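Recap quiz, item 2
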Amino acid sequence: MRSESPHVRDEIEELLDGRLDDAARQRVETHLARCEECESVRRALLLGRESLRTGVRHESMPEDLTAAVIAVLDREDRRSEGPRAAAQNRRLRLYIAAAAAVVLVALAVFLTRPRDLPALVAENYSEFRAGRLPLDLETADAVALERFFADRGVRFRTRVLDLAMMRYQLLGGAVLDDGARKRAFFVYRGEDGRLLACQMYEGRVSDLRAPKTVRRHGDFTFLVFRANDQTQVFWQEGDVVCVLTSDIPSEEVVQLAFAKAMQPPAPPG
Amino acid sequence: LFTILYSIFVNRYRKERREPKLLSVEELEARFDGAVRGEVRGGPVTEPAPRDAWTDSEVEAALSELPEDFRATVLLVDVEEMTYEEAAAALDCAVGTVRSRLSRARKHLYVALRETARRRGYLKDAGRE
């Protein structure tokens, strides 16, 4: 099906990289929903990016980097100042080599830094959507899935949302463990095939980095993040943080979160 | 940090290998358009990507076909998740350059991986360019 409106190919990458403002994003998403050709371009570009995120390891540091730095400096010395000046600069070169080592350590720390939760949640969604994150239990039974989470060592009480009224069918769930915490991960599929993922974990939304927007509804505060083509909505329910993630239009994710947020029952006594 | 590292790697790699040549803009666009049109005709084949449509080493091989400027750009943005502005600062180039390199690199990867998927029988003949 072709859209009557002009194609939006030039804006698709900006959409994928989260660089469009809300009005432009909505316009592009509306076009994509109607234009098979542009939607195919979106899928193609997304595929190129996702294949990198899941298929590329970080480049390891060359073991001979320090020696290579010194050798380059030696050559520069010989070329520009002659051997005598090179000898005088030996101490300086050692300092530079030490600085290079510091840079490498900093780089190693940077590359191995723990991913923040919005980034992890986005990655989990992308992995599942790409078929690379299997579900531990495939079921449409919310109660069975909650029991499964408890059996798998999730300490808090999970609340698998009933989204049938919103025409989302539960597919199943998995327990994700990033070393710091266990997260209950469960996924739904809408009538149009789009995926909606929910995560719950023990924590505080106040520990998250600054969101793109903050929305308030009832007694709840919702932190909205954008990651590439995804919208993530975080909110607090007692000691548990809940997250909804999807690549459906951003406002739909927010409205689903508004509809499903619920304070846990007060403890007895 | 990345500026320093990038400069060192550039010097190192230039000694070790010849610069691969990226397809011309026109040729890459033509192949990409052909692939996308194939998917419109034959239906989407690669989302979600079948797990065995290609391997990680084939992704890295496709990546290695890119000139280093393009490879560095796409790694910084798509793997390290830098913003365009951060990548432009690290590579000492304009934001618009980051944007155009990213576009070409992602299209190249898609075309290359789609060809891999086709060889493995994941694509219908209708989708062949």
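Residues 123 and 214 of chain A are 22 Å apart (CA to CA).
Chain A touches chain B through 38 residues (CB under 8 Å).
End of item.
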